[in-house]
Write a structure and sequence with these properties.
The complex is a heterotrimer of chains A (about 325), B (about 150) and C (about 375).
Chain A: H1 2-37, H2 53-63, H3 74-91, H4 109-131, H5 134-165, H6 170-175, H7 194-211, H8 223-226, H9 236-261, H10 275-293, H11 301-329
Helix pairs in contact in A: 1-2, 1-9, 2-9, 3-4, 3-9, 4-5, 5-7, 5-11, 7-9, 7-11, 9-10
Chain B: H1 2-26, E1 50-52, H2 68-72, E2 78-84, E3 91-98, H3 108-112, E4 118-120, H4 132-135, E5 137-138, H5 139-150
Antiparallel strand pairs in B: 1-4, 2-3, 3-5
Chain C: E1 13-17, E2 29-35, E3 38-45, H1 53-59, H2 66-70, H3 77-92, H4 98-126, H5 131-151, E4 160-161, E5 164-165, H6 171-197, H7 200-206, H8 214-220, H9 225-228, H10 236-239, H11 260-284, E6 303-311, E7 314-322, E8 330-334, H12 336-348, H13 353-362, H14 367-371
Antiparallel strand pairs in C: 1-2, 2-3, 4-5, 6-7, 7-8
Classes of the chains: A mainly alpha (about 325), B alpha+beta (about 150), C alpha+beta (about 375).
Chain lengths: ~325, ~150, ~375
């Protein structure tokens, strides 16, 4: 009893520190990465290489007035930023960082993560609705149709992984991929699964970009069309929490991709598996997110829906059928 | 149906080329100028605010108060006053006020000056907390400051 | 333009796009009547940056209006300089030395490239791509440095004079321009076309969107890349040549599709054509004075005078009425973007909001020039 309380407290603090640091410093990484891609320096004044920039930004946001415009739905308007942040933080609980580091082994952790992601989406919907701003409402309507369209191919590709590993528990799934990159789901040599799994991986990756509302799928906050979308009326830390929630969603998406397809904490060459490999993989994925964002123009809402319904969903279903057939045959 | 597949293949390829280009830029050197640490040099024709040209020896302004510059100015931002010179020949400048808040730096005053009395400064770091510093910019005082700096 | 009958007034809502909105590039306001994300009716509201330039011309001498011309279309200021210089030279009968004409063409074309680069950057920004903006500004910076060397300013030039230009160009400018053209030629295929033009997201975004027919262009008087993107081959430099343009070998890019992609391609090709013109002008550059004989104070004979020049956005007309005094009696400007924008209301009907903004970006609006 004694130890379990300490364990719970330790993980609580650990998860919150990890989430907080990521939410703050991914903003810095994003700005630095964007700067390099655009051949400028990025933040460089506050601290060494601008490393204290997130703290300065945080202080600035905290010291600003929390403006609540007339005509908004007060309770919803004030709670939605929290709603955007909390589910993303909670998701961290179920993620296995290594064989021994996992706050809570939930049996259906894959489903839990998707359920929490949907709550985050609800925050966007409610936040836009409560703002009473036309741009915000258009933005939240877009966000909902986008998330609906992309959850389907995402879940279907997850089913292929579940079929392969026979488990809905993230730790189990990662454990089944140990022993070098040829065991990872995306390159799985056994029974020729890599033939379909790399397509699953790409579909899953595209969907996670869309689910986290990142460019080129940032329909919900399309700043040149909708000003700032659902965040238009938010100021101060309300805005800050939305931003942090967004970054945390990216971290969760990268963690999920790593666990499902890239072997979790496994070393590519079968040596020294551990949490560092997990972190390396998620940060490579996050860098790819940033890289993509600063390369492409934004797409259009119906192109985005077309991509999902006409390309990703048929492909993911075909992939599912082939994977099932492969498993049945061998 | 054919269009469907070509779109996917060509589209995918174009997306990958895009990533390749930005990746290459990522590792290229920075092109921006780090302003407060690297100060740009102004070209000889740079147009800062106008300033009076002083006589090489005496340091007094070359201006003879002919009034061509306020006439040439499209925004009426030049006010100047003069008085008879003490030796009786011509006039000397006593007051030259430039309203820099109105000036559009077109340079018509500098062109209209036939006595080599007016030019553009190379000063682009003009700052003040007080608007009046620019509305009543005393060019004679600036010239005197310059002369003092020279000494 | 009325609201369709099947939509009751409580089924639509009015969305005020602007005067402060990231996509309108200034203080344009568009009153959009929307049905969900579809535009039922679009009505541009002008006048937020009206500064009475035409009236200001009447208040001063001819030379005093020159700085004003640069403040209308601040992206292609030298063409506005050129138009004003042309009409006054026509009125006062001033001869321009040949070298000055060549220098005018070189600087105007450099400025045109800068304007198109900035349009490209801003258009991509409208479409949500931030990185191309910085790449285009990198190149544009080189042009501004070159022009700063000879004109003394970077954006609102006041370089042309009646009877010539203010300063001669030097060898450093000539070699710098040649280097710049070489650099832009090497960068166009990769940083511009591979990264953006061939990108599937961009193609899907602007191809077959924002269709403007040739008939509409004629009805609204649209000119420049908007008309040339709809299959109308009209370029003042070719059709009513002025200055020394007839001496250069260049093509007028025309695309008949009429969609945003066509307008995009017209501008990208125009950059290449402008580079060709500059190269030829630098090769043929004659020696001689850059300033002809012109009286300090002009008093043209009474009469009506007109000049037309091709700016980056289309035909710019200066209509000047003189009464023999040292001030213009009346000046009327026919600015290209005003006509190009008037298309917007009709074409945007029935479009999605995002498409309409992409279409608006492809028109290349410079608001101070519309309102003047």
């Amino acid at each position: 009893m004694e130890t379990s309380i300490w364990r719970a407290l330790l993980y609580l603090v650990g998860v919150m520190v990890f989430a907080g640091l990521n939410a703050a410093y991914l903003g810095w990484c994003e700005r630095k990465g964007a700067g390099r891609i655009q051949r400028r320096i990025g933040p460089c004044e506050v601290g060494y290489a601008g490393l204290l920039q997130p703290i300065a930004d945080g202080v600035k946001l905290l010291s600003k007035q929390l403006l609540v415009p007339r005509g908004v739905d007060h309770i919803i308007f004030r709670t939605t930023p929290v709603m955007a942040m909390i589910p993303a933080m909670t998701s961290m609980v179920a993620i296995p960082f290594s064989a021994n580091i996992q706050a809570r082994a939930v049996e259906l952790s894959v489903l839990l993560l998707f359920a929490l992601a949907s709550i985050g989406m609800m925050a966007i919907l409610l936040g836009g609705w409560a703002s009473g701003n036309k741009y915000a409402i258009i933005s939240s309507a877009r966000a909902v149709s986008q998330n609906l369209a992309y959850e389907i191919p995402m879940l279907v590709t997850v089913i292929t992984v579940v079929l392969l590993t026979g488990s809905l528990e993230l730790k189990e799934i990662a454990l089944k991929q140990q022993g070098g990159f040829w065991h990872w789901n995306v390159f799985r040599l056994e029974n020729g699964h890599f033939l379909t799994m790399w397509i699953s991986f790409i579909i899953f990756f595209i969907c996670s970009v869309a689910e986290t509302n990142r460019a080129p799928f940032d329909m919900a906050e399309a700043e040149s069309e909708l000003v700032a979308g659902y965040m238009t009326e938010y100021s101060s830390m309300g805005f800050g929490l939305f931003m942090m929630g967004e970054y945390l969603n990216i971290v969760v998406g990268a963690c999920l991709t790593t666990t499902l397809f890239l072997g979790g904490w496994d070393c590519p060459f079968g040596l020294t598996p551990g949490v560092w490999w997990f972190l390396l993989k998620i940060y490579i994925l996050i860098f790819t997110f940033i890289w993509i964002r600063w390369t492409y123009p934004r797409t259009q809402i119906y192109r985005l829906l077309n991509l999902s319904w006409k390309i990703l969903i048929p492909f993911s279903f075909a992939n599912l059928l082939i994977t099932a057939a492969l498993i049945k045959v061998f | 149906m054919n269009q469907y597949w070509t779109d996917i293949i060509h589209g995918g390829k174009s997306l990958l080329t895009g990533l390749a280009i930005t990746a290459r830029e990522f590792f290229s050197p920075v092109v921006t100028e780090q302003y407060p640490y690297e100060v740009p040099t102004m070209t000889p024709l740079f147009r800062g605010h106008t300033e009076l040209i002083g006589n090489e020896e005496t340091g007094l302004p070359n201006c003879v108060v002919c009034g061509a510059c306020p006439r040439a100015c499209p925004s009426n931002c030049i006010t100047l006053e003069g008085k008879k010179a003490e030796n009786g020949k011509g006039r000397v400048l006593t007051r030259y006020i430039l309203d820099f808040s109105k000036c559009s730096l077109c340079g018509l005053c500098v062109e209209s000056c036939k006595f080599n009395a007016l030019r553009f400064s190379k000063d682009y770091n003009l700052v003040s907390f007080n608007k009046d510093d620019f509305v009543y910019m005393d060019l004679i005082k600036r010239l005197e400051d310059q002369n003092r700096c020279k000494k | 333009m009325s609201i369709p009958l099947h939509l009751r007034s409580d089924e639509v809502f009015v969305l005020n796009l602007g005067p402060q909105h990231p996509a309108t590039h200034g203080v344009l306001r568009v009153k959009l009547t929307m049905d969900g994300e579809y535009i039922v009716k679009a009505e541009p509201v002008l006048g937020y940056i009206h500064r009475m330039h035409e009236k200001m011309a009447e208040g001063g001498t001819f030379a005093q209006f020159m700085p004003n011309t640069a403040r209308m279309d601040y992206l292609h200021a030298l063409a506005f300089n050129h138009g004003w210089a042309l009409v006054v030279e026509k009125a006062a009968g001033i001869e321009v030395p040949e070298r000055a004409e060549y220098i005018r063409v070189i600087t105007v074309e450099l400025n045109r490239i800068a304007s198109h680069l900035l349009w490209w950057a801003a258009f991509l920004l409208d479409l949500g791509g931030f990185t191309p903006l910085l790449y285009a500004f990198d190149d544009r910076e080189k042009i501004l440095d070159l022009l700063e060397r000879i004109t003394g300013s970077r954006l609102t030039y006041c370089y042309m004079r009646f009877g010539g230009v203010l300063n001669d160009i030097d060898d450093e400018f000539i070699t710098g321009t040649r280097e710049f053209i070489k650099r832009l030629r090497s960068r166009l295929p990769r940083q511009y076309h591979d990264l953006v033009t061939h990108n599937i997201i961009l193609i899907k975004r602007i191809k077959d969107i924002g269709f403007v027919s040739a008939e509409q262009c004629r009805r609204y008087g649209a000119t420049g890349p908007v008309a040339r993107g709809s299959g109308i081959s009209y370029d003042v430099r070719k059709n009513e040549p002025y200055s020394v343009y007839p001496e250069f070998d260049f093509e007028v890019p025309v695309f008949s599709e009429g969609d945003s992609m066509a307008r995009y391609m017209v501008r990208m090709h125009e950059i290449e054509q402008s580079m060709r013109i500059i190269e030829q002008a630098l090769d043929k550059l004659p020696s001689g004075p850059v300033m002809g004989k012109a009286p300090k104070l002009l008093k043209p004979d009474a009469g009506y005078y007109f000049s037309a020049v091709e700016t980056a956005r289309g035909l710019l007309g200066h209509r000047l009425v003189c009464d023999g005094d040292k001030n213009p009696y009346k000046l009327k400007l026919r600015s290209p973007t005003f006509s190009n924008l008037s298309l917007f209301g009709e074409v945007a009907e029935g479009m999605l909001l995002a498409d309409a903004l992409a279409f608006m970006g492809s028109l290349d609006l410079v608001i101070p020039e519309i309102d003047r």
